[in-house]
Amino acid sequence: MDKKILYPVVLLVAGLFLAFLLAVNKPELVPEPYEHITPAVRVVRAQAAAEYLTVTSQGTVQPRTQSELIPEVTGRVVWISPSLVNGGGFKKDDVLLRIDDADYLTLIARSEAALMRSESEYSHASDELKRLDSLNKQKLASEQQLDDARQIAQVKKANLIEAKANLAQARLDLSRTQLQAPFDGLVRSEHVDVGQFVTRGQEIGTVYATDYVEVRLPISADQLGYLGLPLSIRGQIPDAQRPPVTIAADFGSTRLLWEGQLVRLEAQIDEESRMVYGVARLHLEIDDDSPMLPVGMFVQADIRGRKVEDVIRLPRSAMRDDNQVLVVDKDNRLHFRQVTLLRLEHDDILVSSGINNGELVCISPMQTVVDGMLVKPIIE
Question: What is the pTM of this model?
Answer without folding.
Answer: 0.69
